[in-house]
């Protein structure tokens, strides 16, 4: 039995394309436009949560992956996999939610003083979240200043897969409120330049286009 990735557009499931391409593993994709969370069916078992899916796929395919991929998953890589969601994404999401909720709330108001009140609340909440993200980014920069990857070695591993996407999403065009160090930016560019990255993103885009054509 194989692997089927249930893909959601613009979601954490982007990680799974890169991971599977890095390991040279075969997989099928089902695009789920109305889904709420990515999932994968691995040998008939449905696995949810990005970190759990990544770990399960590494256990399944890691032994036969190219030598450039870390296997088995090291404690260092496992730490960064957890950090990506438990620290980085945990604080990134409130910035997005705060912006969207405040915009929606202001659209329902006519009183200018109430709108200003919403803006003040947004600024306060947004500021706390951004500071938390920047603290996490400082820690990331310190790590990458003395380590090549999030495996702690020259190999790419689960921790790198998990860390790349929240870092890239928050970075955007580099003009946002987050403070990225040069080592972090260089690491992201290095990952994005890998042949497997281009292959993974092409597979993702092709699957999304095929899904839209079938609607």
From TrEMBL:
Q: Does the keyword Cell cycle apply?
A: no
Family the entry assigns: Belongs to the GST superfamily.
Q: Which residues form the signal peptide?
A: none
Which ranges carry the GST C-terminal domain? 70-215
| Gene Ontology MF terms | transferase activity
What are the entry keywords? Transferase
Q: Which PANTHER family match?
A: GLUTATHIONE S-TRANSFERASE 1, GLUTATHIONE S-TRANSFERASE-RELATED
**Positions of the GST N-terminal domain:** 1-65
A Pfam cross-reference name: GST_C
Q: What is this protein called?
A: Glutathione transferase
């Amino acid at each position: 039995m194989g692997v089927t990735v249930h893909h959601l557009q613009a979601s954490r499931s982007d990680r799974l394309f890169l991971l599977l391409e890095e390991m040279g593993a075969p997989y099928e994709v089902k695009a789920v436009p109305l889904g709420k969370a990515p999932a994968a069916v691995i040998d008939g078992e449905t696995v949810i949560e990005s970190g759990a899916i990544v770990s399960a796929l590494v256990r399944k395919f890691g032994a036969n992956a190219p030598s450039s991929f870390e296997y088995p998953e090291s404690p260092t890589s496992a730490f960064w996999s957890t950090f990506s969601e438990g620290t980085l994404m945990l604080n990134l999401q409130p910035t997005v939610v705060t912006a969207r909720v405040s915009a929606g709330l202001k659209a329902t108001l006519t009183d200018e003083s109430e709108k200003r009140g919403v803006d003040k609340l947004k600024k306060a909440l947004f500021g706390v979240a951004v500071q938390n993200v920047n603290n996490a980014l400082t820690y990331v920069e310190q790590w990458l200043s003395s380590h090549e990857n999030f495996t702690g070695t020259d190999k790419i591993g689960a921790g790198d897969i998990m860390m790349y996407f929240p870092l890239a999403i928050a970075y955007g065009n580099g003009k946002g409120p987050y403070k990225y160090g040069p080592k972090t930016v260089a690491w992201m560019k290095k990952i994005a330049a890998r042949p497997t990255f281009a292959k993974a993103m092409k597979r993702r885009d092709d699957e999304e286009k095929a899904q839209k054509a079938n609607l």
